[in-house]
Specification:
By secondary structure, the chain is of the alpha+beta class. The chain is built from three helices and four strands; from the N terminus they run βαββααβ.
Length: about 110
């Protein structure tokens, strides 16, 4: 990955008991996005082991214009409305990769 790569990130505080429902809805929407939206590459959803309702989604994008078009689509608005109903808090953001690390070969 190149530094300065663009990511969309969401921090989700899912209501107690709605975690599985949220995960299914998110996965369906993420699949649709990566298959149908130009610039969308991959999407991942992390779940906190000690706080199952706390989740973080993220995925890289080719450019900010593709993100803006995605967020303007009716499918995005529909998912986001549905997701907000399942959550106590939602914090979306666009973020840029500014540093990373790579594995070190320790076989020598």
């Amino acid at each position: 990955m190149a530094k300065n790569e663009l990511y969309t990130v969401g921090v989700w505080k899912v209501k107690n008991g709605r975690e599985k429902e949220f995960i299914l809805a998110w996965a369906e929407f993420a699949d649709w996005s990566t298959e149908n939206v130009p610039g969308s590459m991959t999407a991942r959803l992390l779940q906190d082991e000690s706080q199952p309702g706390r989740m973080i989604s993220f995925g890289p994008w080719e450019n900010a214009e593709d993100v803006a078009r995605w967020r303007a689509m009716p499918e995005f608005r529909l998912f986001f409305t549905k997701a907000k109903e399942m959550c106590e808090e939602v914090s979306p953001a666009n973020m840029r990769l500014v540093a990373e690390t790579a594995p070190v070969d320790r076989s020598l």
